[in-house]
Amino acid sequence: MTDNTAQRIGLTTTIPMEVIFAAGKAPCDLNNIFITSPQREAFMTKAEALGFPRNICGWIKGIYGATLAEGIQEVVAVTQGDCSNTHALMEVLQTAGVRIFPFAYPYDGDRYLLTLQIERMMEHFGVTREEVRETKEILDQVRRKVHEIDRLTWQEGVVTGSENHLFLVSTSDMNGDWQAFEEEVDHFLNEAKSRKTLSNGVRLGYLGVPPIFTDLYDCVEELGARVVFNEIQRQFSMPFETTDIVEQYLRYTYPYSIFARLEDIKSEIHTRKIDGLIHYVQSFCFRQVQDIILRQEIKVPILTIEGDRPAPLDARTRLRLESFVEMLRHRDQDWIYE
To answer: Of the candidates 94, 191, 242, 312, which lies 20 to 30 Å from 103 by C-alpha distance?
Structure first.
C-alpha cells in the first residue's frame, strides 16, 4: 500500500487503482486536482497559451495544467472509454517529459480484452494478482462506507447533495491515501448520523460527468430542491459488489455505451423516487449527443445544462434551474413511480 511520500501516478479518469495502490504508489485523479485548485483558471490559461484550442473541453486543458503544476511524472491515460481528446493530451504531455501508460476500456465490454488491459497494467507496475486482490478487499471496505454516505443522502435525508458528490467523486483515487480518506469518511459518518433529517423538497438526480460549475449544488438547495442521486460520481465508488476485479470494472458503467448507464439510471430513479433530472453536458464533448437518447428513453422530466469553464452558474442557467424546480414542485408526481 502507500505512504505519504509515495510517488503519485496521475489518472485522466477512473481506472483500476487497486493496481497502483498495490504497487505502493498514490493514484491522483487529475480532474479532482484541477477543479479543487485555486489555480484552476491559470491551469486552463497556461494550456491555451501553449496552443490548446478554445473549442477543446475545459477538463482536458485543466488536466494538462494540473499535471505540470503538480510535478506529476507518470500518467495513466484512458485512451478508450473517456474523452477522445485524451490521445492528443497524452502526446503533448509526453513532449513535456511525462511518462504515459495507456489504458483502454473495450467499448463493447468484452471481458477478455479488459482482462488483458488490467494484466498489462499489473505487469507495468510490477504487482501480482494476489497483491491486487488483497488491495481490492481493503479498498472495498472503504467503498462500503462511502455507499453508506450515499444511502444516508437518499434514504435518511441527512446528507446534502454537495456532500454526497464530494465523497463519491473522491473515490476515484481516495485522495491518493486510502487510510486518510477512510478516517475522513468515518468522521463524517459519525457526524452525519446524529443530524436531523433535512427538509423535504423536490428530489433531483444528477446525470453526466461531475460539473465544472462551482456552485450548482448550493443553488439547487437554495431553490428548495435536493440532489439525491449523483450518477457518474456513484459509479466511481464501484456500487456493484464483486470479488472479481475484472467484473468490477465491467459493471462500472461510465466507460461503456449509454445503454449500460440507462439501465442503472432507470433503476435508481425508481428506488430513490426522483422527481426530475439535471443532465450536465460539458462544452465541446461528444457526450452532448447522448442527451438525445436520454430524453427518448427516460420519462422523468430532464433539464439539460451546459458548462465550459470553472465558474459559478451564469444568470441564464440559474433562471432555467429555478423554473425547472418550480415546475416540478407544482406538478402531479404520482405517475413517475408506477
So the answer is: 242
Taking alpha carbons only, the member of 26, 1, 12 closest to residue 174 is 26
**Cα 205 to Cα 54: distance, rounded to the nearest angstrom:** 30
**Cβ–Cβ < 8 Å for 268, 232:** no
| 89-93-95 Cα angle (round to 5) | 120
DSSP 335: G
Each residue's pLDDT tens digit, 74-111: 999 999 877 888 888 999 999 999 999 999 999 999 99
> Who's near 148: CB < 8 A, 6+ residues apart?
189
| CA 215 remoteness from chain centre | 17
Query: How far apart are alpha carbons 204 and 303 in whole angstroms?
Result: 10
C-alpha cell at 102: 495507456
pLDDT at 2 over 70: no
109-149, pLDDT tens digit by residue?
Answer: 999 999 999 999 999 999 999 999 999 999 999 999 999 99
Strand ranges, E, within the chain: 8-11, 26-29, 74-80, 99-104, 202-207, 225-230, 276-282, 302-307
Q: What is the pLDDT of residue 4?
A: 55
Domain spans of the chain, in order of start: 8-127
* pLDDT above 80: residue 333: no
Look up residue 99 and give its three cell numbers.
Answer: 511518462
What is the pLDDT, as a whole number, of residue 332? 58
How far, rounded to the nearest angstrom, does the alpha carbon of residue 92 sit from its chain's CA centroid? 24
Q: Are the C-beta atoms of residues 114 and 247 closer than 8 Å to each other?
A: no
Q: Does domain 8-127 have CATH number 3.40.50.11890?
A: yes
CB-count exposure of residue 315 (10 Å: 0-12, 13-18, 19+) = exposed
Our measurement of the distance from residue 242's CA atom to the centroid of its chain's CA atoms, rounded to an integer in Å, reads 20
Rounded to whole angstroms, how far apart are CA atoms 79 and 170? 22
**Averaged confidence pLDDT in the chain:** 92
Q: Report d(CA 199, CA 271) in Å as an integer.
A: 19
What is the identity of the amino acid at 10? G
Chain-centroid distance, C-alpha 71: 23
